[in-house]
Amino acid sequence: YIYRFGYESFSVSQVLSGDPNFKMGVSHGDDLLYLFPLALFTSIRGTESDKDREMSRKMVDLVANFVTYGDPNPVTNTTRWCPNSGHYDYLSINPDG
């Protein structure tokens, strides 16, 4: 399974710069901020938005389903994330879907 994380909110670039207003777009590793929320990031980011919490829940659900069932697709979700067939098929994880 391959994915492209395209949710732009709080980012690694803000953590590294120490500036919550620093924006460079989605950075490598930004997905980890939604899988493993840490107090360090909260002190820089401030309060999470409802959209941030929803994205975190989505990321945790995908990973937990993959670890538990070998399939990241939630039963209740209509989005299908297909295994990579060698043609670099991927799921775009963003606010719209």
Automatic annotation (TrEMBL):
Key word Glycoprotein present: yes
Entry coiled-coil feature ranges: none
Gene: CarE
InterPro entries for this protein: AB_hydrolase_fold, CarbesteraseB
All copies of domain Carboxylesterase type B, residue ranges: 1-95
Source organism phylogeny: Eukaryota, Metazoa, Ecdysozoa, Arthropoda, Hexapoda
SUPFAM superfamilies: alpha/beta-Hydrolases (SSF53474)
Name assigned to this protein: Carboxylesterase
TM regions (residue ranges): none
Keywords from the named record: Glycoprotein
Pfam families: COesterase (PF00135)
